[in-house]
Specification:
six-stranded mixed β-sheet; nine-stranded mixed β-sheet; 7 helices
Length: 361
């Protein structure tokens, strides 16, 4: 049987991971077509701005939780055995306040506020924080070993893994998802299109998913290191602001955040929010500056990214569009990396099903 021609639209973490898993099967001709590629920094391209890490917010018992769970072994393996991927282990602490349970962010981060989150049996070294370990103002918390990803290394690593397996990359700015089938590198029409367009699925012809919306995140990347990853369930500054910090692998600096501003498309930096982010980070983790103020933070850059949130959850399913099977894998919100392998495996299962020959009658 001839190799099926597949075109993956989107070169964020979802598109690249899906392309890699397909390429590992050695039975497809794969093109990745995208407006933005690793190395680009653009408000439309969410993946470079991510932390990125593994601390699940998916609800126990859901398919989303299963995708997160199935991603952990892959990330753990990368941290153990593939330092060139830019993934490393990091001790992690989550600090919770009871009053955040009913806040907008508390509802979004509900699993992290639980004393017994489902992922306690997945990640290593899970334990409850003692009263002595809790920061002032927090009521509970837990600690575990997680991973943090240097996106500036990891995204190009995914590309290199795909290239080694014959995947072809090309720039494309599509008006309609069905246009993708006509730009396969073979010069022939693609047999199947994979839609990993993230927030662009809102406006992309043939998709136009009105369930998509941005959740704006603003961050500050600093050279300071504290050798810990931690977050809080909320702040007293604003309902849509949170505090987290994560030290990226391989000298990638420490990312300070942040915000969960729903429906906010603003790509410009808010200097007042940046100051609040830095103050909260130093208060939560004084080791960042040796107990000194934010003037001792050594800033690399500030950033704004738009998380591709989808009402109803991530969309992973197939449909025929203009006669060509299209498999969707988008709408991962703020958990694209920590669900990447689980979601992509599900997409690959659907791709196999769509391409499998129908039995003769």
């Amino acid at each position: 049987m001839a190799e099926a021609r597949i075109i993956v639209v989107g070169a964020g973490v979802a598109g690249l991971t899906t392309a890699l898993l397909l390429a590992r099967e050695s039975k497809y001709q794969i093109t990745v077509a995208a407006k933005h590629m690793p190395g680009d920094y653009d408000i439309e391209y969410a993946s470079p701005w991510a932390g990125a890490n593994f601390w699940p917010i998916s609800e126990a018992g859901t398919e989303a939780a299963e995708w997160d769970k199935n991603t952990w072994p892959e990330l753990e393996d990368l941290a153990k055995n593939h330092p060139e991927a830019g993934v490393h282990f990091q001790g992690t602490a989550i600090y919770n306040r009871s009053k955040d349970v009913h806040s907008p962010n508390g509802k979004y981060l509900a699993e992290k506020l639980k004393s017994e989150p489902w992922y306690k049996t997945v990640v290593p070294n899970f334990r409850q924080l003692s009263r002595e370990e809790l920061k002032s103002g927090f009521d509970s918390g837990h600690a575990f070993t997680s991973v943090c990803i240097n996106t500036a290394i990891y995204l190009p690593w995914l590309v290199s893994q795909c290239l080694q397996r014959g995947v072809v990359f090309k720039r494309a700015n599509l008006e309609h998802i069905s246009d993708a089938s006509r730009i396969h590198h073979s010069g022939n029409k693609a047999d199947l299109v994979v839609n990993c367009t993230g927030l662009s699925a809102l406006k992309l012809g043939g998709v136009r998913d009105e369930n998509m919306m941005p959740i704006r995140g603003q961050t500050v990347l600093v050279r300071n290191e504290a050798n810990v990853m931690c977050s809080s369930s909320g702040t007293d500054d604003a309902e849509e602001e949170v505090c987290y910090l994560m030290q990226r692998a391989a000298g990638g600096g420490t990312l300070l955040g942040g915000s969960y501003q729903r429906g906010n498309w603003d790509s410009q930096l808010d200097p007042n929010l940046a100051v609040r982010i830095m103050k909260r980070a130093v208060e939560l983790c004084p080791a960042l500056t040796g107990g000194k103020g934010i003037e001792h933070l050594d800033i690399v850059r500030q950033g704004v990214g738009l998380r591709p949130h989808r009402h109803g959850g991530t969309r992973i399913e197939k449909e025929r569009i203009n006669g060509v099977w299209t498999v969707h894998n988008y709408g991962h919100g703020g958990f694209g990396y920590q669900s990447s392998y689980g979601c992509s495996r599900k997409a690959v299962e659907i791709i196999r099903e769509a391409l499998s020959p129908r039995p003769s009658l």
